[in-house]
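Changelog excerpt: complex records now keep ligands as SMILES alongside chain sequences, and the structure block spans every component. Example after the change:
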Amino acid sequence: MFFIFGLRTKVDQSGVVQQVCRHCGNQAAQVITRRSTKFTLFFVPLIPVRTRYVQQCTFCGAQYQIDKADARRLAVG
Ligand SMILES: [Zn+2]
């Protein structure tokens, strides 16, 4: 008997908003993505380990983590 287990991160694009970038200070499209990591057993996602929300500036490419409330507020859904 053996087990195959690991972690899998799924990236979903939640939305795009126009906002002033914290990094470069330009008004530019910001892509909001949700990255959810799940514990997998036999390649089947079972237990959510963590969910992070990341905002990326399309002008300078900077990425930074935002909290769930901000993600909800910025991107519908
Ligand atoms: Zn920027």
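The chain has one helix and four strands. The first helix runs from residue 68 to 74.
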